[in-house]
Amino acid sequence: xxxxLLTNFHPHPGGGGGHARYIRTILTSALRxxxxxxxxxxxxxxxxxxxxxxxAPAFPCDxxxxxxxxxxxxxxxxxxxxxxxxxxxxxxxxxxxxxxxxVVLWKTLHKEGPRCVRTHHAVxxxxxxxxNRYAYLKVISGHLYVSHSxxxxxxxxxxxxPPHSVVVPNGVDVIFWxxxxxxxxxxxxxxxxxxxxxxGSHAGMGWxxxxxxxxxxxxxxxxxxxxxPFKILLRGNEREIAQSKRVEAEVGLQNVVYQGYAEDPRxxxxxxxxxxxxSEAIEAVSFAARELMAMGKPLISSNxxxxxxxxxxxxxxxxxxxGDAEGVAEAIDWFLALTAERFxxxxxxxxxxxxxxxxxxxxxxxxxxxxxxxxxxxxxxx
Length: 382
Known about the structure:
Elements: E1 2-7, H1 17-27, E2 35-41, H2 46-53, E3 58-60, H3 70-87, E4 91-94, H4 97-109, E5 115-120, E6 122-123, H5 130-139, E7 140-145, H6 148-154, E8 165-167, H7 184-190, E9 198-200, H8 211-224, E10 231-235, H9 238-251, E11 256-259, H10 266-269, E12 274-277, E13 282-283, H11 287-294, E14 299-302, E15 317-320, H12 325-336, H13 340-357, H14 360-374
Parallel strand pairs: 1-2, 1-4, 2-3, 4-5, 5-7, 7-8, 9-10, 9-12, 10-11, 12-14, 14-15
Antiparallel strand pairs: 6-13
Helix pairs in contact: 1-2, 3-4, 8-9, 8-12, 11-13
């Protein structure tokens, strides 16, 4: 079987976000019947730990990228070269900018090395400069984008537009992420009652996720008078939670609860009635949003990039303009005013959207075609 080395620079031990989900999807798929996979990532990171968990070779390799880290970058190039020499991949599949830089440096020194391809997980324009023209036009032989909207925004003029680019939308395992009753243990640990209406985020609390915007929208609605009481569940680390509590105090909220990272979040996600994701930068499509919808949770979503591909307004959620706190307040109020029957219908529609549009099976077939083309293999049987 042809060998594919998956690289990722994220050092985070707790999961690794969408990049880790993406690599997990590959390593748990039927692609392993056709290709042999290994992982190169910082030792101890969530992506590196996937190797041992899913029985794939995992090579420890840091991918420094700051201009102050030039000695470390040279060491990483040598380390990556030893990995390639030991495992001898036929294709290197890069999943971030920093691992790309190390691989490009290595390829510059080893012209006969394996082909390289890159997944663009975030919405970022590529400046048209000498380095990028060399890396994207001469070294990297194929590019994957995870949503059509993300690709279109990233390609806006005067950005560089990499050739041999295809869109393979991210999918989720709709069997693993499926509807379930509210988990009693999670309700107790979070101090929630079974009949409380809960809005929640599964995407973390990075600056671009705009959980603060949801808090501000909730405060606007509560000052006007909400149709019914509600709680807000946020997931984050200690620093993010402390920052969020400052916003919470600033706007006068007393209905927010917090949850830390969990390897399997489905239990605490079960207590959420409506999810939300209000990103206004970087986010290409969001695994977290699609996982919530697969669990039958309708969404309040911003209309940024590929997020618009998740939600059909008033069918399986609500779309709001980026940065619009008043729009968030209106969306919260819309959900709170729904009858039980109408809310159940919207929740079913969220699940149906996941089943029909973004299953992992569709993503895997797209990746299979991409890998075969990248390796100059036949695609006739796909």
